[in-house]
Design brief:
It is built from 24 helices and no strands. It has helices at residues 7-24, 27-48, 52-80, 82-101, 106-134, 140-144, 146-165, 170-179, 182-191, 199-204, 208-218, 222-235, 259-265, 269-287, 290-295, 297-303, 309-337, 339-366, 373-392, 394-404, 411-440, 442-463, 475-478, 495-506. The relative contact order is 0.13. The two termini are 27 Å apart. 77% of the residues lie in helices and 0% in strands. By secondary structure, the chain is mainly α. The chain is globular.
């Protein structure tokens, strides 16, 4: 039995983990911006004398600006490679953070948000794509959830930054909060240069020798590496008997040519279903209200009856800490329990938590002249429960699922469409929350999010097959079957069984 788990494969998995961890750390940039802006907005409003509508815009506009980066990321990564696209994203965010830190007025601050948003859009697309393409099937769920871990870690850092710089003079505090975001961008840009290029991108360029070297280091066994290379060659349209280190790739398969036609204009039924699943999960991740809670948590806590900036920012740090702890739990369950059970459990818990939060805030709003302690406790407990349930399922699985289901040729552009939907929905939620709760009450806002989460649960239950243990090249076949048929015996296969059957199919 001991011979079945040798040291060498474990070392290779460590190499894959280190590579994907470096790539995923770009997500810290987005997380930091989300977290820091929740507290910085309090000081920006007072210092620049802006209205609630302007606060909504400055908080949520980064998500809209990220559309530009996410739209360009697919094509850029097919052109210059996944690795250099990550470096490019970090450089852009670095410039944006400096501009925000030195902003002298609202218009200048918006310019900084625009530049940082483009960097965030790039990072959001490319980190999950790179991670999915480097990861072996046995640990892909864990590794492709790393971007969400680092988003949460970035949010926590942003909250801590709010708390730490809150004591500074008003005109300096928010500038320090936003400006220090440039520091992690420098380390990320340098660190990413140490990781290998994606083997799938190398194959698309005809560099089979380089791809083989990377696969040997990032696979559990040499046999798995050869099997993965064979699958990627087939997906890239390279004949099996082409074994030289550098080969000619059909022009149609290079640099994403013809991708949009296959993805949008004339998709096969399987690709159409993959596209709906990939874009749909991003829509529901954001439309169920997570950014309203994360970006406006100080204001929500204030409505719930917590007073004073220190207490509000301290409670917000607790949200960030809870969110980060539960995302760590999720990473160890994804490859054991599977995507589908975690996703359905997560969304069900979110529905209950949102109803509880809506109920508690409605009671407090109705009896605003009294301090109702039990309602305050319900609100705080519901917020912590909501971010916990989000973090064990819908948060990480959105990035895992959407990065692993698209076929190789369509992956970068398909992932960019999912991120585009994510950022549009996030922007709409962030830029309308204050206006929404003034129109339908703050409790009513969370009842609305609970309704959207209920629709999401039905969508996931009826439409999403289990992808645990599947190789990336198997996904298109999986989506050709109805969801309940695809949940048969193949779903529960171990990684070894997957590799064994793939080897038989190859032979």
């Amino acid at each position: 039995m001991e011979v079945e788990t040798p040291e060498k494969p474990r070392g290779r998995n460590k190499y894959a983990t280190a590579s994907t961890m470096l790539a995923s750390m770009t997500s810290i940039l987005l997380g930091y911006d989300i977290g820091v802006m929740s507290g910085a907005a309090i000081f920006i409003k007072d210092d620049l004398k802006i209205s609630d509508v302007q606060v909504e815009i400055i908080v949520g506009i980064l998500a809209v600006y990220a559309l530009i980066g996410s739209a360009a990321a697919g094509r850029t990564s097919d052109w210059i490679g996944r690795r250099y696209t990550i470096v490019f994203a970090a450089v852009i965010f670095f410039v944006g953070a400096l501009l925000m830190g030195f902003a002298t007025n609202y218009a200048f601050l918006m310019v900084g948000r625009f530049v940082a948003g483009i960097g965030v859009g790039y990072a959001l697309v490319i980190a999950p794509v790179y991670t999915a393409e480097v990861s072996p099937a046995s640990t892909r769920g864990f590794l492709t959830s790393l971007p969400e871990i680092f988003i949460n870690f970035g949010i926590l850092l942003g909250y801590v930054s709010n708390y730490g710089f809150a004591k500074l003079p008003e005109n300096l505090s928010w500038r320090m909060m936003l400006g220090v975001g440039a520091i992690p961008a420098v380390f990320l840009a340098v660190g990413v240069l140490a990781m290998p290029e994606s083997p799938r991108w190398l194959v698309m360029q005809g560099r089979l020798g380089d791809a083989r070297l990377v696969l040997n280091k990032t696979s559990d066994t040499k046999e798995e590496a050869e099997c993965r290379l064979s699958d990627i060659k087939e997906a890239a349209g390279i004949p099996e008997n082409y074994t030289e280190d550098v080969v000619e790739v059909p022009q149609r398969n290079r640099a994403g040519k013809g991708v949009w036609k296959e993805l949008l204009w004339k998709p096969t039924p399987a690709v159409r279903r993959i596209l709906i699943a990939g874009v749909g999960i991003h829509f529901f991740q954001q439309s169920s209200g997570i950014d309203s809670v994360v970006l406006y948590s100080p204001r929500i806590f204030k409505k719930a009856g917590i007073k004073g900036n220190d207490a509000l920012l301290g409670a917000t740090v607790a949200v960030g800490f809870t969110k980060t702890m539960f995302i760590l739990v999720a990473t160890f369950l994804l490859d054991r329990v599977g995507r589908r059970p975690l996703l359905l459990t997560s969304v069900a818990g979110m529905i209950v938590s949102l109803v509880g939060l809506g109920f508690g805030l409605t009671i407090i709003d109705h009896y605003h002249e009294e301090r109702i302690v039990w309602a305050i406790v319900i609100c705080i407990g519901s917020i912590l429960a909501y971010v916990s349930f989000f973090s064990i399922g819908l948060g990480p699985i959105t990035w895992v699922y959407s990065s692993e289901i698209f076929p190789l040729r369509l992956r970068a552009q398909g992932a960019s469409m999912g991120v585009a939907m994510n950022r549009v929905t996030s922007g709409v939620i962030a830029m309308t929350f204050l206006s929404l709760y003034k129109a339908i009450t703050i409790g009513g806002s969370f009842f609305l999010y609970a309704g959207i989460a209920a629709v999401a649960w039905v969508f996931f239950y009826t439409f999403f097959p289990e992808t645990r243990g599947r190789t990336l090249e198997e996904m298109q076949t999986l989506f050709e079957k109805p969801v309940f048929r695809s949940r048969g015996t193949k779903e529960g296969r171990s990684h070894d069984e997957v590799q064994s059957s793939n080897g038989l199919e190859q032979r």
